[in-house]
Amino acid sequence: MLTQEQNELLTQVGPGTPMGGLLRRYWQPIAGVSEFDGKATRNVRLMGEDLVLYKDLSGNFGLVERHCPHRGADLSYGFVEQCGLRCNYHGWLFGADGACLEQPYEDTVSHGTQHRDKVRAKAYPVRAHAGLLWAYLGPLPAPELPDWEPFSWQNGFVQVVISEIPCNWLQGQENSIDPIHFEWMHANWSIRLRGSEGPYSPRHVKIDFHEFEHGFTYNRIREDTDETHPLWTIGRVCLWPNAIFTGDHFEYRVPVDDTNMLSVGWFFARVPRENEPYAQESIPTWYGPIADEGTGEWITSHVMNQDFVAWLGQGPISDRTREHLGRSDRGVGMIRRQYLRDLKLIEQGLDPKAVIRDPARNVAIPLPIVDRDALTEGLSMNDIEAGKALHHSRFIFQYGQPPEVRAVQEEAMGLRINAKSYVDH
Question: pTM score > 0.90 for this model?
Answer without folding.
Answer: yes
